Amino acid sequence: MGAMALVARKQPVQPRARATVEAILSAAAGILEKDGPTRLTTNAVAAQAGVSIGSLYQYFPNKQALTAALIERSSGSLEKSVAQAGRDAKTMLFEAGLRVLVRSLVRHRLDRPALEHTLAFEERRLPLEDGAAKRATAVMRAFLEQHRGRLWVSDLNAAADDVLSMTRSLTEAAARRGERNVEVIEQRIVRALRGFLCR
């Protein structure tokens, strides 16, 4: 599938158009969250959103474009959260800063766990640029650089990527078990990461 097929046909400008797009994306998110990608169709989304299929096609050429828009929205939210956590962590000691960064990742993943799980799977399947992940890795690398003296790892790019992957995997496992206590999950992950990173 070409990248153009994943791009929205046009961007909403007027308030009414923005409300229409928001209703469409909310409906698509609800279907993915409840029923998974096999039940996501443009007809189902239009019906759920209360708009005509023609109105939907003005903005999204197919269901893949809808999914890509939801992934972009989720990635943007995560990027904003991690960037703020990175700014906060600059003034903290190592473990406190690591905890703040991990918390931002865990909270994002557990906000709508079923939806985030599906979007993560679809993101790997679709030909999308993952700029948000690269920027999150850069934030984590900057934090590790700040505390390099405490770490045994020498390749901070790989270490930052490992930290994000481990956090994502451990949070995913907790979500599958039905856990929703961010603080408890965060504590477990920070203990694991401290053992992985520190001398």
The CATH topology of the largest domain comes to Tetracycline Repressor, domain 2
CATH architecture group name of the largest domain = Orthogonal Bundle
Low-confidence stretches: none
Number of strands: 0
- By CATH, the superfamily of the largest domain comes out as Tetracycline Repressor, domain 2
Provide structural commentary.
The mean pLDDT is 91. It is elongated, with a radius of gyration of 19 Å. Helix 1 (15-35) crosses helix 6 (113-125), helix 4 (63-89) packs parallel to helix 7 and helix 8 runs antiparallel to helix 9 (182-197). By secondary structure, the chain is mostly helical. The protein folds into 2 domains: 11-61, Homeodomain-like (Arc Repressor Mutant, subunit A, Orthogonal Bundle); 71-197, Orthogonal Bundle (Tetracycline Repressor, domain 2). It is built from 9 helices and no strands. The longest helix is centred in the middle third of the chain and has 27 residues, at 63-89. The termini are far apart.
